[in-house]
């Protein structure tokens, strides 16, 4: 898998040491390229529930005084659900989640697939948001200490047609940060409430959503 890139940081309040990370999560893998790239109709999985969420929790509040929420690395005004296209409307990538509803402790599997007929580029697989829809809007459930910064190597990953990233996320307080390159500093606070969640892959400004029950 070809890589290229530059370094960038998403700084939280305060100054501190940054850790640069690169590459894909240990749980990520790329599928083998196929002779004919899949179409969105060929893909399994879902984009988001059609109905409104049954539960909308209050704004997230963490009792740790030095906790700062993870900043968003995407443009909310330009967010796409499930599919991305070229400027001429040609299909580019498809993001899917394997289920629309989970219980706390289950594992969500999310895949990104190049559905075009040529190579495409994205950032690394560790640059994403995991958010819950609250009374204050969408909020990332993760964060870190206010005296530390979140730093990523903004590498580019080349995807042949039919290839995909895959994320497996255990829907628990510790599971959502396990195996992330910044696992040593990221944490979830408070614990995951019941409600509607979305996974946003920054490089493509694309999201999928699902419900979590407790």
UniProtKB/TrEMBL annotation:
Source organism, top-level taxon: Archaea
Region (Disordered), start-end ranges: 21-70
Protein's UniProt name: F5/8 type C domain-containing protein
